[in-house]
Amino acid sequence: xxxxxxxxxxxxxxxxxxxxxxxxxxxxxxxxxxxxxxxxxxxxxxxxxxxxxxxxxxxxxxxxxxxxxxxxxxxxxxxxxxxxxxxxxxxxxxxxxxxxxxxxxxxxxxxxxxxxxxxxxxxxxxxxxxxxxxxxxxxxxxxxxxxxxxxxxxxxxxxxxxxxxxxxxxxxxxxxxxxxxxxxxxxxxxxxxxxxxxxxxxxxxxxxxxxxxxxxxxxxxxxxxxxxxxxxxxxxxxxxxxxxxxxxxxxxxxxxxxxxxxxxxxxxxxxxxxxxxxxxxxxxxxxxxxxxxxxxxxxxxxxxxxxxxxxxxxxxxxxxxxxxxxxxxxxxxxxxxxxxxxxxxxxxxxxxxxxxxxxxxxxxxxxxxxxxxxxxxxxxxxxxxxxxxxxxxxxxxxxxxxxxxxxxxxxxxxxxxxxxxxxxxxxxxxxxxxxxxxxxxxxxxxxxxxxxxxxxxxxxxxxxxxxxxxxxxxxxxxxxxxxxxxxxxxxxxxxxxxx
Length: 499
What we know:
The protein is 36% helix and 20% strand. The protein has 499 residues and is an alpha/beta fold.
């Protein structure tokens, strides 16, 4: 479907007699409102346009703030300006007008080119006259190298956001897709979006975060255990970071033991403050798309289980570990750790995954370890022999043994010694098969809160339990559960082990 260009979008807003509101922009000029003045008819749309560039002036209007390009300042602007609109105008025209406030606070390229080029942008609006407010907030990164081009891109994104809020609020997927109309991902990255309010009461922001990555508007998206959408730079800024990559179908005791063991070991590293460590459960798009199209129920099942375990979730398009490492290093100069199983480490040393790099596997490892990154390896149990595959006895190709040993000796790869041996016999594929077969032994391989969630919601084809009695012995079948029909799930997804 052909979408209107930026000029036509701005004009469509101006010609909509229901819309009336304010623009408040800090930094990078009045780039969004300029479009609406330029196309004509702005008197029917714009109640006020302003910019509080001076920090003292900004504080006097919106209240004090630690940083001026941040979410807190944007929300202060939206709340204050929309409050004024309703206070001053609702009495005279509230029955026929849907009021809105658009705001942004942006740091475009400075004269020396030394600053982070990013910004917060949002709109608070009434979908209908006298309606409760709804809101969309986004965080953008400007990728152009010239200030004037960054300003131009910001203006276009702002118009797209306004147009989407007014005309596409009933189709949030299409709204997200339209944000880069007349632009490209080479110019703008949108790494966070959040919908709030009555117009978006049925929107799950975790799914919207996934859409950002799926559509290529961002390479990664993040949200907290309580479902709040997070902006990566604000979470990771100057923090030590520890990541566990997995399929989490389901979340098992091994997943939890691996991250806990790695965090304990990671905290002993020089310069790592245990209280500052950010732990992430990462799922790659390649893993989510292992069976073709993304199954949203399957995606949300994984996320809900991780949330039940208190985990912050990162969805990324960084299948290669060196790309993930570069992404994390963008936000923090502190130490970065990645924990993985021994089987994943074997895959990491498979040269077939690096044919696209001119320097092959050497270039990959050069990128991976250049920022003081460290791998923490969880052992693999051979249940037939009882032997463990560890860093010390891991088999790699003959021509890579010297490279492997060099990385081990240099301390880039470390064996986790503090794991719980009771969990080594747990394999997620087997647990998933047991769930499908209604073999209740699966419950002994997952945390209690995960087991309850799987049963209550029928995840992965499990027969739903309307009420789950508390059993003293988790390894014994729960007595007389009340079963409901199972919710179908995708076929078993292979664990993503490659970097």
